[in-house]
Amino acid sequence: MPIGAGGCPAGSSSAGYGVPDSAAVPNNALLPLPANGLPQTGRALNPTTKSYSFTTDGRVVGCPTVQQLVQLALTTIFNSSAQAGLGSKLSLIQEKGSDYGQQVTAAITDALADLVKDKLVQIVSVTVLQPSSSPDAGIAVLQWIDLTTGQQSPLLVGP
User: Where are the beta strands (DSSP E) in the chain?
Assistant: First the structure.
């Protein structure tokens, strides 16, 4: 910031002296993607806090629409929203029996069935991991393709 006119007699400097500071051009993109700052069509949800994510300047972080639809389909409890049939039945799995992996895979594919039917998503694979160190633990790794962009993404799904 230039030094103000207080150090100069009036008339010898228009509004201070020195090299003026430069400011960054404000990015006014709505729902920007942090990687490139380009506007997106959906709002990014933090999977831990279940709240919107914000940029350092206070704007809501964006994400592609299909990514948001997949996240909502898998994190919403089945039939708990205003949209009938939306959500996952993972919370209905009560015990880890011999068919646990099949139950988790079925719950994930059922949750994404409408997106697959609408040709927005292709499910590549669902891998259910069950660590031997913790018999009650389990997590699924979903590999899916956004058919609107052709981009493949992994997603951890916790039953």
Answer: 42-43, 62-63, 121-129, 139-146, 151-157
Q: Give the SS3 label for residue 88.
A: strand
Structure tokens at 131: 């660590």
Mean pLDDT by 10 residues, the chain (159 residues): 54 59 70 86 87 88 93 92 90 87 94 96 95 85 95 89
pLDDT digit string, tens, across residues 76-98: 999 898 988 899 999 888 888 88
CA angle 72–78–82, rounded 5-degree value? 70
pTM of the model: 0.76
Measured CA to CA, the distance from residue 97 to residue 91 in angstroms comes to: 15
d(C-alpha 11, C-alpha 5), whole Å: 9
